[in-house]
Design brief:
Helix content of chain A is 78%, strand content 0%. Classes of the chains: A mainly alpha, B alpha+beta.
């Protein structure tokens, strides 16, 4: 079993496998995005209070979920890299950060665009918004720490530690709307209760959530392949690959 | 797992647990400051600052909104189903402001017990449904 995992995690093997998956991942992402956007923007009915403006949830909510999901993935990959010193896990952790930062920024910007017409304010310093902003800074911290240390393997370990310390922010973001009085509303879907959203709105929301997840895997594979090539540029398999490509 | 890996795993678990406990205590200590607004009951109990500005959150009582002719000034009652406070506001209300809706207003208490707001934000709820469903969920009038 462990042998199989080590083989899967070997850089040349992963490089080849990920290369085969890329066209599929891009195709699935585009299909799901098209279906989700059609469902969210055209098929889903208008909201009883917010009218058409609520449709921003089809971007905002999946982006916010992804910002948390990618952070957890990054921290777990970082921990695996720390404990087992698997190169692939280190690379996955490092390459997740820019994607997660992108989703966090998207959630913050779309939320702000939604907040102005609905709440009457672009930004308020309530617990949910502040902790999400902190998450963006954590991602940016991970990215800058990684690029500040020249030795990539040492850098990966430092980054993994930072990511693991920041994990404490994840439950805070999720439960902030329940622990404290916030302007941000409570959870609609992610609670131990029936989702308080009409099923015709829920389906496109879920399609968008899956689309964003597949997009993450796609973007991650692209980044990991490049990062692996750069890190392993002095090894035999990269040299052979280069020779083959030159013809 | 080799002993060195076990040690690393243990160190990581200890570190995450330690950070969680520390942050947990810090948040507990700052609990009051993390509250974005005071509820109407908090204010009635005297928890809100008397001289400083603070935010007051609650539901707009049905039928309590009174507008002044020729100005933007508006008076309405806020409740959390236990206590009621009257709010005075002179300014533009957000689109979602309506009776029965949760709102958050920023301002201070006047001597006569009226809350004078200089900002009103609407707090929308976590329910999303089409208008016809909302219509059918309203209690039927006899």
């Amino acid at each position: 079993m462990m042998k199989f995992i080590y083989m899967m995690a070997s850089p040349p093997h992963f490089y080849r496998l990920a290369g085969k998956w890329l066209p599929w991942l891009s195709g699935i992402t585009l299909l799901l995005l098209a279906a989700g956007l059609y469902g969210g923007l055209i098929y889903a009915p208008t909201d009883y209070q917010q009218g058409e403006s609520y449709r921003i949830i089809f971007i905002h909510v999946p982006a916010a979920w992804m910002s948390l999901f990618i952070y957890i993935a990054m921290a777990i990959a970082g921990a695996i890299g720390l404990i087992w010193r698997i190169k692939l896990a280190e690379t996955v952790a490092v390459c997740s950060a820019p994607i997660g930062a992108g989703f966090t920024l998207l959630a913050l910007i779309t939320g702000s665009m939604w907040g102005k017409p609905m709440w009457g304010a672009w930004w308020v310093w309530d617990a949910r918004l502040t902790s999400e902003l902190l998450l963006l800074f954590l991602y940016l911290g991970v990215m800058s720490l990684y690029s500040a240390i020249p030795d990539k393997r040492v850098a990966s370990r430092a980054v993994a530690l930072l990511a693991l310390v920041g994990v404490v922010n994840i439950p805070i973001i999720h439960y902030s709307v329940e622990w404290w009085n916030t302007l941000h509303q409570g959870p609609t879907v992610t609670k131990f209760d029936k989702p308080s959203i009409d099923v015709r709105m829920l389906i496109p929301l879920m399609v968008m959530a899956v689309a964003f997840k597949v997009y993450y895997v796609w973007a991650l594979f692209l980044r990991v392949r490049v990062e692996l090539l750069e890190r392993e540029r002095n090894t035999q398999w990269v040299k052979e690959l280069l020779k083959m490509n030159k013809g | 797992m080799t002993p060195i890996r076990k040690k690393r795993l243990l160190l990581i678990v200890l570190m995450v647990a330690g950070v969680s406990v520390a942050v947990g205590f810090a948040l507990k200590a700052f609990n009051e400051n993390l509250m974005f607004f005071f509820s109407v009951t908090d204010v009635a109990k005297g928890k809100a600052p008397a001289v400083k500005d603070f935010r007051l959150g609650g539901m707009v009582v049905n039928g309590s909104v009174k507008r002044e002719d020729g100005s933007l000034a508006v008076m309405f009652d806020l409740t959390d189903n236990a206590e009621v406070i009257t709010v005075y506001y002179d300014g533009i209300l957000p689109d979602l402001f309506r009776e029965g809706q949760g709102i958050i207003s920023k301002g201070k208490m006047r001597a006569d017990g009226v809350f004078e707001a200089d900002e009103v934000l609407a707090k929308h709820d976590e329910n999303y449904m089409p208008p016809e469903v909302a219509e059918s969920m309203k209690p039927k009038k006899p």
